[in-house]
Amino acid sequence: MVHFVGAGSGAPDLITVRGMRLLQEADVVIYAGSLVNPALLEYCKEDTEIHDSARMHLEEVLAVMKRAESEGKTTVRLHTGDPSIYGAIREQMDALRECGIAFDICPGVSSMYAAAAALQVEYTLPEVSQTVIISRAAGRTPVPEKEDLPKLAAIGATLVLFLSAGQTAQVQKALLQGAYTEATPCAIVYKASWPEEKILRGTVGTLPEMAEQNGITQTALIVVGDVLGNDYALSKLYDKHFTTGYRKGE
Ligand code: SAH
Fold first, then answer.
1. Which residue lies with its CA nearest to atom 11 of ligand 1?
2. Do residues 221 and 160 make contact, with C-beta atoms less than 8 angstroms apart?
3. pLDDT, tens digit (0-9, with 9 covering 90-100), for 145-156
4. CATH number of 2-106
5. How far is the CA of 45 from the centre of ligand 1 (A)?
6. Please, which residues have CB within 8 angstroms of residue 174's CB and are 6 or more apart in sequence?
């Protein structure tokens, strides 16, 4: 059996209880060493066989899983954040299905949530934005044309960009082609929930210099939108005049 486990954003106590238990029971662990905090491996048994997938290609990862399975062992494939976001798990799942190896997925705390916590922000504020767009700047991995950043930026929703901290000039240009202005609030969160976490606040106009002055090119999220500002409407949910299924309005 293979368990894909979301490691969370970095802090070892931000893995789920289920994920921690799976690590404690695993015979083999393959972890994404480029981003997963190695401190999480302290949950493993002393004799757990550990592989860093940063140094492996897909076939090597699959070979370890297949060998473990043939020996009746349990494997944890540990991915950073939540595995469903830029986790490259689909190709692994399809290969496992093809050779009849059972697997399941344990979700994790994505870095986009650790960043929201670090920024003390609510991504969905009444009358400001009720939509969160998750995307990335095109890099060595292309982005489908229909999702070109200026097109997404035209919506003006809360925007969370992964894998883009090294391309802030390109990102700024795309944002300004959309609904955002130089004055739209913007933040960079580097290594959210790690001891070396950095929170940089500015505007779309200052985005490239925020990254440059702090030497940030990777392991960071760019968050854009008026939810980072000060204006919003109070929620209906907790409005004392608003009737809900649980409470009658005054
Ligand atoms: N599955 C992961 C994302 C993997 S893609 C998740 O859910 O968070 C890798 C990108 O995620 C990095 O380039 C960076 O943009 C972002 N990232 C991962 N961990 C981060 C962290 N602790 N703080 C800020 N950004 C992070």
1. 162
2. yes
3. 999 999 999 999
4. 3.40.1010.10
5. 27
6. 137, 148, 149, 150, 153
How far from 53 is each of 32, 36, 56, 73, 113, CA to CA, in Å? 5, 10, 5, 18, 24
Return the pLDDT at 86: 97
pTM comes to 0.95
102 φ, ψ (degrees, to nearest 5): -75, 145
Residues 93 and 102: beta-carbon distance below 8 Å: no
Q: Which of 4, 5, 14, 35 to mutate to test the pocket of ligand 1 (most atoms within 8 A of CB)?
A: 35
Domain ranges of the chain: 2-106, 111-228
* Ligand 1 pocket check for 192: Cβ under 6 Å: yes
Q: Contact at 8 Å (CB) between 86 and 163?
A: yes
Query: Is 111-228 CATH 3.40.50.2300?
Result: no
